[in-house]
From TrEMBL:
This is Glycine receptor subunit alphaZ1. It comes from Parasteatoda tepidariorum. Residues 192-271 form the Neurotransmitter-gated ion-channel transmembrane domain. InterPro entries: GABAA/Glycine_rcpt, Neur_chan_lig-bd, Neur_chan_lig-bd_sf, Neur_channel, Neuro-gated_channel_TM_sf, Neuro_actylchol_rec, Neurotrans-gated_channel_TM, Neurotransmitter_ion_chnl_CS. Coiled coil: none annotated.
Length: 281
């Protein structure tokens, strides 16, 4: 008369990759499900409070029809033997565990790139049973400490649960979120510091005598070409909207270009061709 409560526990062992182009990420996890089935008892003859069931039993028992909602690809690891098993205890509680490698969708907003923080979900939902039959609840969602990624670090995690209504009924779900903050070391060394130095180099022309045409023009044009090359060699994400790094690079180009315009203005004034725009001459 009451829905079966299935407790979900997920332990994230490793994050294999984060693909911004395909909006996906890969994880290795331990996936646990716990539920009670009073129809199943351990025979008294076994004289034990905990019984490990053969994997073949799974096809003869009722098991939750859970699936990963944002699943793209994956497998149960079976390098030596299939990494999945079931345990029955004396209270008729069934425990199912499996080690799974998954590729999951992750909707990323890169507007703040490279200062962005992405929240990638591992979402679990009941496939055919509505909330009248099955309710999913979190037992635990945890992430292994000291996971190392080239561009990101794990800044935290959170979990949530609830129901989603579709035309065929209301279904229970749980979702665990991994908060991924981008590392700034690469951009600081390869983008920010070089751009600041190039702008400072272009401002050096203000201290070069205006009569030194070759020196000032060469330095200004070289600074402009270098900063434009930096812009087109930047590792920008392939998105159709402006990201923060675009604004930074365009601002730097603007500063360098203004230094070149300043010298053109000075030459015009010096040659009395800019008297109309220089009222103090």
């Amino acid at each position: 008369s009451e829905p079966a409560t299935v407790y979900i526990r997920i332990a994230v062992l490793n994050i294999n990759f984060v693909d911004e182009a395909k909006q996906a990420f890969g994880v290795d996890i331990f996936f646990h499900q716990i539920w009670n089935d009073p129809r199943i008892k351990i025979p008294v003859s076994h004289n034990t409070s905990r019984l490990v069931l053969d994997s073949k039993w799974r096809h003869h028992l009722w098991t939750p029809d859970t699936y990963f909602k944002n699943f793209v690809d994956g497998k149960v690891n079976d390098i030596i033997i299939p990494y999945s098993y079931m345990i029955l205890d004396k209270n008729s509680d069934l425990f199912f565990a499996a080690r799974v490698s998954l590729k999951l969708d992750c909707e990323m907003n890169l507007a703040s790139y490279p200062h962005d923080v992405q929240q990638c979900e591992i979402s679990v939902m009941s496939l055919t049973h509505t909330t009248k039959n099955v309710v999913l609840k979190w037992k635990e969602f945890q992430i292994t400490q000291n996971i190392l990624l080239a561009q990101y670090y794990v800044s935290g995690n959170s979990s949530l649960g609830g129901t989603k209504r579709y035309s065929i009924g209301e279904f229970s779900f749980v979702a665990g979120r991994i908060h991924l903050a981008r590392r700034l070391g690469y951009f600081l060394i390869n983008k920010y510091i070089p751009c600041v130095l190039i702008i400072c180099m272009s401002f050096v022309t203000f201290w070069i005598p205006a009569e030194a045409y070759p020196a000032r023009v060469t330095l200004s044009v070289t600074s402009l070409l270098t900063i434009v090359t930096q812009q087109y060699q930047s590792a920008m994400p392939s998105v159709s909207y402006v990201v923060a790094l675009n604004i930074w690079m365009l601002s730097c180009i603007g500063f360098v270009f203004c230094s070149l315009l300043e010298y053109a203005f000075v030459i015009a004034v010096m040659n009395n061709k800019g008297a109309e725009i220089w009222p103090f001459r």
